[in-house]
Records
---
Amino acid sequence: MPQHTGSAARLYGREREREELDRVLSLARDGKGSAMILVGEPGIGKTTLLRYATAQAADFRVLTCRGVPSETELAFAGLHQLLWPILDRIDELPSAQATVLRGALGLGGHSGDRLLLGVAVLTLLSELAGDRPVLVVIDDLQLLDQPSRNCLRFVSRRIAEEPIAMLVAAHPGTYSETGEPTPVLPIRGLDSASAEQLVAEHNPRLSRARTSTLVRLTDGNPLALMELSRDAGVTLSPAASSHIALGPRLRASFDARLRELPESERIIALIAAADDGADARTVAHAAELLGVTAENFSAALNSELLRPADGRITVDHPLIRAAVYDSADPELRRTVHAALARVYADTDRERHDWHVAATATEPDETIAAMLDDAAERAWARGGALAAARIYRRAAALSPDTAAAAHRLARAARAAWDGGDTESARELLEAAEDRAGADVVGAAGGGLTGLFELGQGDTARARRLLLRDAESAEPRFADELRHLALRASWALSDPLTASQLGAIAARTVDSGTDLPPSRLPIAEVAIAVGGEAHALRLYRESIERMRTEGPVTWLGYSLGQQAMLEITVGRWDDAIANAIEGLRLSEDFGGRQTPAYCYVAMGFIAALRGDEATALDLTDRALAFARPIRFHPLAADAYWCRALAALGAGRPDDAFELLRTIRAPEHFAHQSTIVVLSAADAAEAAVRLGRFEPAREYLEILTAHAGLTTAAWASADAARVRALLATDAEAEALFLEALRIAPAQRPFTYARIQLQFGEWLRRMRRRRAALEQLHLAHNTFERLGALPWAERAEREIVMAGDRTTVGAVRSDSDPATVLTAQELQVARLAATGLTNREIAARLLISPRTVGNHLSHIFSKLGLGGRGDLVNVDFENGFRLIP
């Protein structure tokens, strides 16, 4: 845990432990001695905490000793090490005490008076503390010789009235909890945040997802975090083997404990480690094949090392499991795997094949081919990550380079299907290194094009997808062609209505288990009028992702859902989902996901009048979209900025931004976004008196309405005609727009009402104008669309209603007081889900859910959980009577 060899120890977290150590030192300064035992597994950070205490004890005289394996059987070796710096003070002791102490330390005659020896050491330390407080530090108590331990235990019980602090570090089970009155400070793994800091120091390039895996795997053990993070890579991925190789320091720290185990217990532990989570009958059968008696098997189950639970047997801690497997003799490991293969021969073909492969000592095509079949069976059952692990092992056993490359490519595609995109990329690169990208393209199921589509050149991605679709298996070929169609959309190629419908998943039934890559593109779903259907598909799919995976797709899907929720007026939900998507993107990587989340939040900031935030968020999205010319996101960013300008009363800025989206040569050009923003562009043009460009945008809307029969496009076309029409024609066109406009798009509907009300006021039809303006104002006020509500309010006043309309949204409104995650928790709790169920869906802890609920009840003025069912989440958090 120190930064580097020879430096002062650097602690991450450990606030509780530091407080306890500081307290012991503070008591000693006040003349109140005490002792404390720090207990924890090897590598957990006990030594670093002792170094911390020593650093804090600059005003103390510090004496230290550490147990050494080679001296465990040497009587008083530990005591000699501790007292070496002050041997010259022994002569100051009373004669009898000095004699017995010299004898114990090998400096004089022998003496067996243990009581007098303890008194001598206590006296020596007490007199030493007469000058300044004394700190006694004992590390690795479990390796200290027993006579020294007995003597120091005697001393620790008698320092209460002395300015002496004694700190001892020990492994679990190496001291008697019942007979040891000394307070115990359990040292556990680092908390997640501190563990991630430690990993980042040693391997700053390790992704958040793999860092989280490492923290979970090591349970926050600092030594394990340091040793495993340096060379961590695909071995930490979900697609990796479940066995990890420990570093030398970590392995050595466990060796002593493992060497003390009886042979039968070591064999049973190795069986459990080789087949983690095996049922008890499997372990017992394998142990019997290896000659372990039933009596020894029962005795082993009572050891601290093994944990029988729910009919299964596991090794107590993941690091101990790794140490058991890693430190075992290779021949014994193969023997154990062979026994497990025999046990599974008739019950589980996949596990049988895996254990057979683990017995191989050199490349073997027969075994590799057997693993191919096992991988395909696992994949067919939905176990994509298991298939990736099996294919990786098959590649390692492949004598032929081309066969190894083929299997690595298959592993890459399986990892992709399982949501482990980081491993998929690494495995594909390994395959390409062996055989070239063209050769492994089909085996990888078009994975090269999939990566290019998400991160690079869209045109090249389409070429690769179509190339690999020609030779890929049927189960991949259709998907690749579909994704090539999505690439064509991103490039603004002309698409038919049926092609747009396919991208929007219009023909997919709700409840269908769609893979994430087949879910609708939000902008296309909105363009064809299918946002409600698309929203249902996303909600169902996201629910499955939360409980079944792949979680790595969850962030992107939440960003897409947020875009749909903006359209249907669920702006607070959209913000909550976008924020969660951002958080998940930190864990699972990917650049497109945060860009979409930034744009979604940018749209809401723009519509609510926070232009500075909208600009900042779209800057972040453009940082991704501009370099790779990802047109859809760039177009969304420009449209977002145009809406902010339009709401701020700057139609000239809005028109220029929207005209840019229409320019084919510009990186922000995207044809669907041109259509979606056409009515905004036309409104800006009319307000500038530029009627010809407004008519051009009208033609765009009319053509799209004819192509897709989308009601919103017809309604937008009608309101643009109304803006361009003579006074005699305008009213009928506004009424037509209101008649056909989708009611589930409240912001757009309110804008038609606003424009109609403005026209009616100009026609001096004040009563009719006020009716439309008040309706529009109410919707804007509910959504928090401040600029638009203020515009409606000005029109209301000009129409003759001078009563106070009121603030658009007060700062105390619950919808603005609740944080994004509190809003999510409130909605889920209102459905009756428990804290644990909510935590599972939001990937947070049940304790965090409980804290959020306490804040929610306070902010909304609710008595408890039951009151949430009476909250109208759609209309300003009003209570339903």
---
Amino acid sequence: MAVEEEGLRVFQSVRIKIGEAKNLPSYPGPNKMRDCYCTVNLDQEEVFRTKIVEKSLCPFYGEDFYCEIPRSFRYLSFYIFDRDVFRRDSIIGKVAIQKEDLQKYHNRDTWFQLQHVDADSEVQGKVHLDLRLSEVITDTGIVCHKLAARIIECQGLPIVNGQCDPYATVTLAGPLRSEAKKTKVKRKTTNPQFDEVFYFEVTRPSSYSRKSHFDIEEEDVDKLEIRVDLWNASNLKFGDEFLGELRVPLTVLRASSCYDAWYFLQPRDNGSRSLKQDELGSLRLNVVYTEDHVFSSQYYSPLRDLLLKSADVEPVSASAAHILGEVCREKQEAAVPLVRLFLHCGRIVPFLSSIANAELKRTQDPNTIFRGNSLTSKCIDETMKLAGMHYLHVTLKPVIEEICQSHRSCEIDPVKLRDSDSLDNNMETLRQHVDRVFTAITTSGVSCPTVMCDIFFCLREAAAKRFQDDPDVRYTAVSGFIFLRFFAPAILSPNLFHLTPHHTDPQTSRTLTLISKTIQTLGSLSKSKSASFKESYMASFYEFFNEQKYGDAVKNFLDLISSSGRRDPKSVEQPILLKEGFMIKRAQGRKRFGMKNFKKRWFCLTNHEFTYRKTPSFLDRDQPLYSIPIENILAVEKLEEESFKMKNMFQVVQPERALYIQANNCVEARDWIDVLTKVSQCNQRRLTFYHPSAHLNGHWLCCRATSDTAPGCSPCTGGLPANIQLDIDGDRETERIYSLFSCYLGRLEKMQEACGSRSVYDGPEQEEYSAFVIDDPQETYKTLRQVIAAVGTLEQEHAQYRRDKFKKTKYGSQEHPIGDKSFQNYIQQQSESSTHSI
């Protein structure tokens, strides 16, 4: 979900690796160990939770999380929780990284000290405050100065203990005075509209002649400030909870008698107390935060056209796409946006075919074919992840779930075998698991996505042509990708491919490791499979399998997925699972408020229907409680928070009524709205207008219309139809490629030097340029010149946008409240750049 800014879209995303915690404080009891989990929060809103690691003070999580960030935020926070024997959760500590500091830790493992969590440090939200200073003349001619402090509204306040009933205290404070006033309490809202004015006497009445507010003595102003404290009215005996404060010195009124601005709430001064080193332990994180500023499509045409013709450039090493792979320090950096762009534009197969042929020409041994981390291998890996994710789920998820639920030991290493285990029984159980997984894979050929099959066909033909004396190379060229780099990693780490919600327990993880090793070997078609195992116990286990039987099944499967002119993908009618998870839904047809109206249900979306039931589908084999055919989804839109005083709600509009649903957090809400919108956009009956609020107590809260079938009052926000499985924004991917070229501009220039050197120096390649593959210096130089020109043009557009934004943006506006450090840094940078350019 992009934020629109006058012809430019801004995308935020974050990729996090949660490593491990160490030296957590021991539990105050005889056991001393803790059962801990970690959460990821945008400010204080939880968007991800790891599994619980039991009985450890140094828990290892090893979990990855990625999300598109749908709203503004100030802190990316991580909380470590301890769950006790009564299943109560208590916070051990937190790591809070300010948004403007995220680049300091970009893509590198960092240990962060855990900090204490208390009300003085947990703040979020912003306040709109208006201050006005005026003169008042009494009947006797005495002049005094009065301050009108108007607290207008707040936005984004936190929910504390399941509620947010905020009020504010406004205090005029100085060395010898403190006068406080209080607003009314606003119930069940994180965006309270106060609009209350409080009057304070700034200077005491005096008999001296009338003065303007500009002439107030400095000591009268410098020593006074307005302090606004936000509180959550609590029903608990411990008192109201602190939500944050702001302090405004009255010196802001020297230049003008009025001051109207937005402020970020801040923690109290005593909230940042000093802590002992390692008092709460530390947490290892790797955070990659990206912010893409995407212009309209025409700005990217020169660079995009240059990239898309890469497959036709001869040699391909002189193409723009191949050059990107050469200058990036990691091939994966280049592979991700390249694959997404080529998939979006329907050019992925010729591009991959071209770079694969070039790599094969440089390969001397058929046994090492596509074995390195080359641009070809990384691009094909990324293509399989994008185009094959649903295929992977349909093929493996049912059998992986069965293995995870069985909890049967499959250990076959005699050294690791427990006394209560039987080696023969474990081997038989493991063989059964392997057989089920192998059968699921080799019978899934008809479901393999067409784009993957077309790529495999090109690989097969190119390998067979390059190594004509090796009859098996047409199989090994494909099996190395589909078995070794697609199915085997998914079996080994199912959580990374969303086959399981978290890492599996140690015993199940060991079982999946053994299965993955065996599947790799069964699919490798190597001449001596038993010898391919380093462990003797794996070699003896492999004797269970009939090489002829399993080898024939592998070859038949590879023939099917790498054949030309295969079946029409539309002929496969099996439902594709798009998304599932727990959410809270409002009972349909209810007319009154009440907790019984809202129930937790397991929702499941396929390309056929949207359903919910009481429990996950693999636990509940009965029919769902409710089903909405995709053709009956007329619109999917956000629901205004004020409808039910609940955050993160959206509505699925049907012909008869709307289904109101609350997601767990803003990220989940955005994901559900996006995928439901995309899957239903081909519906010819889709609405163009909807009601942004609910129909309650006989009328729509938004437009006050009384009929529950009244036409909508706001235009729907759904965009153009998109491919459900490959939701790719071509302009955003081109922007990412531009960013990479811009980042590695120095290496591009170095490559230009290498081309010039190669053109005039006909001898051994100079060592300083040996990192680059340059087959044709003149053609490569020509492409480099075009790339650098296109990158320079885009850089000018970005610089102009930054200058225009700097001129238009006001510090203290709703978009950039006072206290926004990232914008303060931005102002400083722009001021410095303006000074240098003069």
